[in-house]
Design goal:
alpha/beta; 14 strands
Length: about 325
C-alpha cells in the first residue's frame, strides 16, 4: 500500500435509519473512514454494531423502505455513490466494487449453474461474448482453487460443498477485477480448516491483483492475520481505528479492550472461564447524544452521560471516540 496514496474509497458522515413499527432505529451514526489502494481494512464488532449495514449502505444494497440512507458522502473514482443514478451505480456494483456475502447458499441462485452466474457480470459489465466469458469463468474458478474448473461450470450450487460455494462467490466478486472488494464475514459458516484455506486464498489474490479489501468479521484472530488497519464499531459508530499492530498493542477504547480479553489464549495458564462483555448492544431509537457503551463500560464517568465523544487522534494513525484516557486512568485532556 503506497504511503500518501489517495483513498480509493472515502466515506464521510454516513447515517442510515430503519423505519420500524417501534420507531426509527438509527443503525449507522456519522460513520467516516477511508480505504487506500491495496489496503485491507478489518471491521470488527458484535452483532448489531452496524458493520454490515454500513457497508451495504455504501453501495445502496439495503431495501428502501425500511432502510433510509439519510446523510453522507461516499466518494469512489470521483463519483458520490449515494447521489449517483441507478444506472451508474449498477455499472460500479459488481464491476468496480465486488461484494462477498456471508452465506453463499442464499446468495447463489439455485436454479442457475455456477458458470452462468460467473459469466453474467462478465457479459454485463465487460461486454464479453458468451465464449470469451466462458473461458474467463474457467480461469476464475482455477484462480480460486476449484479443481476440474471447465467441467464444474455446468454444476449447480447444491453440488458444491460450503467451502467450494464460498470460492465460487469469490470468483463472481473478482470477475471484473474490482478496485474494491467488500467481504461480509465470508468464512463464518465454514469449518476452521476451510476458513484457513479461504483466508490464504484472499491474501494470495490480494497480492496478485492489488485490490483494496474491506473484511467484516467477529474474529479478531482473522483480523490479526490479514488486516493492515482495523476499525472497531459499536452502536452504529466507529469507536476506534488504528493500524493492526498498534491496535492490538495499545487498545484505547474500553470496548476494544473488552473484545480483546474475550479472545481465548493458547499460551500460558487457561482461565477458569472465558471473559464476556456484560449486557447487550443498544437498539438506538434516537440519535445517540451520549456514549452508547457507557451502560456496559467499567470506565464510564459523568461526562459520558451528557455527550457522545468525538474521535480523538492519539498518534501513530490511531484515533478513538472515548473520554477516558488509559494512560492517566482519568478523563482525556482534549
Amino acid at each position: 500500500m503506497p504511503d500518501g496514496a489517495q483513498p480509493v474509497l472515502d466515506v464521510r458522515d454516513l447515517k442510515t435509519v430503519f423505519r420500524t413499527r417501534g420507531g426509527e432505529v438509527h443503525a449507522v451514526n456519522s460513520v467516516s473512514f477511508d480505504l487506500k489502494p491495496g489496503e485491507l481494512l478489518g471491521v470488527v464488532g458484535e452483532s448489531g454494531s452496524g458493520k454490515s449495514v454500513t457497508m451495504m449502505s455504501l453501495i445502496r444494497l439495503l431495501p428502501s423502505p425500511p432502510a433510509d440512507v439519510r446523510q453522507g458522502q461516499v466518494m469512489f473514482d470521483g463519483t458520490d455513490l449515494l447521489h449517483c443514478s441507478e444506472q451508474v451505480l449498477r455499472d460500479i456494483r459488481g464491476g468496480k466494487i465486488g461484494f462477498i456475502f456471508q452465506d453463499p447458499m442464499t446468495s447463489l441462485n439455485p436454479v442457475f449453474t455456477v458458470g452462468f452466474q460467473i459469466m453474467e457480470p462478465l457479459r454485463r459489465h465487460l461486454g464479453m461474448s458468451k465464449e470469451k466469458a466462458r473461458v474467463r469463468a474457467v480461469e476464475l474458478l482455477d484462480l480460486v482453487g476449484i479443481p476440474d474448473a471447465k467441467r464444474r461450470l455446468k454444476d449447480y450450487p447444491h453440488q458444491f460443498s460450503g467451502g467450494m460455494r464460498q470460492r465460487v462467490m469469490i470468483a463472481i466478486a473478482l470477475a471484473c477485477d474490482p478496485k474494491v472488494l467488500i467481504a461480509d464475514e465470508p468464512t463464518t459458516a465454514l469449518d476452521v480448516t476451510i476458513q484457513a484455506q479461504i483466508l490464504e486464498l484472499v491474501k494470495d489474490l490480494r497480492q496478485k491483483l492489488g485490490m483494496a479489501i474491506v473484511w467484516i468479521t467477529h474474529d479478531l484472530g482473522v483480523v490479526a492475520g490479514i488486516a493492515d488497519r482495523v476499525m472497531v464499531m459499536y452502536g452504529g459508530q466507529v469507536v476506534e481505528q488504528a493500524p493492526v499492530k498498534e491496535l492490538f498493542r495499545n487498545p484505547q477504547h474500553p470496548y476494544t479492550r473488552a473484545l480483546l480479553k474475550t479472545v481465548p489464549g493458547v499460551i500460558g495458564e487457561r482461565p477458569e472461564k472465558l471473559n464476556v462483555i456484560e449486557g447487550q448492544p443498544p437498539i438506538l431509537y434516537a440519535q445517540p447524544e451520549d456514549c452508547s457503551f457507557r451502560d456496559r463500560c467499567p470506565q464510564a464517568m459523568a461526562r459520558c452521560a451528557t455527550a457522545n465523544p468525538r474521535r480523538y487522534d492519539v498518534g501513530n494513525g490511531h484515533d478513538v471516540a472515548c473520554f477516558w484516557d488509559p494512560a492517566t486512568g482519568g478523563e482525556r485532556n482534549a
